[in-house]
Amino acid sequence: MSGTWDARFAAEFFGTMILVLFGNGAVANSFLKDTTGNGENGQANGGWIFIAVGYGLGVMIPAMMFGSISGNHLNPAITIAQAAAGIFPWAKVTPYLVFQFLGAMVGQLLVLVIYWPYYKRTKDEGAIFATFSTGDTAGSTMNGFWTEAIGTAILTFVAMGLY
Questions:
Q1: pLDDT tens digits, residue range 131-160?
Q2: Which residue among 4, 23, 45, 61 sits deepest, i.e. has the most Cβ atoms within 10 Å of its Cβ?
Q3: pTM flag (> 0.70)
């Protein structure tokens, strides 16, 4: 990683913002009423492939833009795992997490602003909720917890294997 700590913090902010903007923007385009990505009866035309590409680009573009500056963590789990492994200084974990959270919030705010007319037209609360978070159709908090825990563990193991 190169660059000052201020540049690294800014890179994490903008990288995380882009990730959320592209990923959740793809979800919004797929599920909100009358968007170009929304099919009939609330079914997404592009479906999960379109959403996966949105998130993939949301990770790839910041990696190419900011990877050499900040390491392109974009996820608190990666930052904490790197600190635990001695790759990243613990003293910088809190600022990284703050900038990642702020970037995610600004990214979601941009999705909300960009798609606001479509949010107003959409009556399906599940479709609206999906643009902010993963809905748990099982109705179980533990199901959501374990899904996220296992997915994050796999992501972290893969990412740590790259260092």
A1: 887 665 666 678 778 888 898 889 888 888
A2: 23
A3: yes
Q: Residue 78: which H helix or E strand, with range?
A: helix 76-84
- What is the spatial distance between Cα 122 and Cα 115, in angstroms, rounded to a whole number? 11
> Strand ranges (DSSP E) for 56-141?
none
Of 77, 53, 76, 57, nearest to 65 by C-alpha is 57
pLDDT digits (tens, 9 = 90+) for 19-40: 999 999 999 998 898 888 876 6
| pLDDT score of 44 | 54
Cβ atoms of residues 26 and 54 within 8 Å: yes
Q: What is the DSSP letter of 72?
A: -
In the chain, what's the furthest Cα-to-Cα distance? Answer: 51
Report whether 61 contacts 19 (CB < 8 A): no
